[in-house]
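Troubleshooting: if your tokenizer reports a length mismatch, compare your output against this known-good record of 216 residues.
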Amino acid sequence: RDAIPTEGEQDRSRAKKSAPNTTTVQEGPTKKKRKLGLKANRILHKKPAIDLTGIPPQPLILKNGLSRSDYIDNSRRRPVKDGISSKYTGVYFDQQSAKWRAQIMVDGSVCSIGSYQSEEEAAADYARAAFKHKARGSHKLYGGMDLSDVPEDQPLIRSDTNASGYKGVKAMKGRWQARIGNGNGKHVTLGTFDTVEEAAGIYARAVYYLEQKQEE
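Known-good structure output:
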């Protein structure tokens, strides 16, 4: 007949079953998924470089002077920092490669123009790229709207509640941004401008444009 375990033996048996397994098992190296860094992610999603074949040399464009040039302005005013940014539009210093880089916004995407040893070389190619992709034509688009047939002497629309003093205009990093509702519950950016009056003028013309569209 089997012996009946004593109360002490029963306690030790229960403790043994409930104790965690402390056997050390040496595992091989585990593979961990590594997130791509910002630079690697940019490389994977890099847009094709701008083709400047056949584009003649153009005057260099000083930073924040794009709206006063012969090119469409979709830039914002940015401060010039010694050793990092450039006094020219579309140019910055890449500290990792120790070279000047030029890039340009085309169809809503930032496209690389190239890397250069000097700031002026990068600015020269940016000016050529701007000539190709941002040259003002007979039709100027603001937020996708062609305002070329809208009279420029539209009365500005004042606002007592807007800090700018004009409806549809707000300060944006030292410049003035004009925005307007498209009728679908969303706002469309018309552009950024050097003066509040210029932004308010574009907003007023855009209002006139949309009103005429509604009457058609």
